Hints:
- The chain is mainly β.
- Helices cover 8% and strands 58% of the residues.
- The strands form two sheets. Strands 1, 2, 3, 4, 5, 6, 7, 8, 9, 10, 13, 14, 15 and 17 form a 14-stranded mixed sheet that branches.
- Residues 1-42 have low confidence and may be disordered.
Amino acid sequence: MLFSHLNLIYNMKTQKFIGLLSFLLIATFTSCSSDSDGTAVANSTVSAKIDGQNWQSIPNGVNITVTSVEDEGVSQNVLQMVATSANLTVLTLQFPINNLVEGTYTFQGDQAGMLSYTDLSSFSLYGSSAENGTLSVTISNVNLAQKTLSGTFSGTLYDLMESGASKQITNGTFQNVKFETAGIYSNGSMSLSKNGNPNFIISANDEANSKILIGENSVDNSITVNGYALKTDNNFGIYSVKFPKDATAGTYPITATGDYQASYAGNEADDFTVSTGSVTIVSHVGNVVKANFNYTAKKGNITVTVSDGSFEITHLD
């Protein structure tokens, strides 16, 4: 979870649309490469050489999402691929596209495209968006009927912690990887109390240190409301609530895998687990959803209590 924060903060400085996606698609309610019924896509893999050493994704450890991002009246389609290996390393490829077609895309430095390598065991993060970094990706096959992509990639990555170290990614390939479609936009507001502190408000119109991002997933017809409180005070964190797009008025328990979910992310490297909580859909009239929520998130001996939460957002048609 820590690296999602770093990726978000780093990219918001240089690659606005990419930055909006980093936490949503890596850390919150993501799924592995699968058909809509949950079965694995045959031969769905990502492989590469990292400094000459073979790297291979685990079975079903690849996810591609093509997301329409709208922010401050500007829209862009962004492709993001996240691939995980058995040794707790992650390759993430993300770049803007106008249309999902075969072709080659190249980026240098802080242009709006990025290949990153994360080692969760050593807390290291390398990216092509650093100065002198490079990225080249070729989409060689697009199967719109099956919603799968194949292609190749390579890049020169530098330590984003500014140690000067670098990594060479060569012979990168992704084969028959299932892609999903989603939408991300911003409107409305969220209010909550963290650990009994006074309520604070996150809105779509706030500065960069506070932001509402709403994600819609066409695969499970869900909406996730994400409140980013990134000012370094006692309320710091990312607060997320997920619910069905066709939700009706009522109170529903928050569960780990059900229709109603929640999450919290803070400075800590490990994930928090939400143990209890509920979402009350106060009203859902047209596209406007008003809801209340509360939940408790735990990580080891750390407990975060989210209470008196509420939000009002307008979703897409």
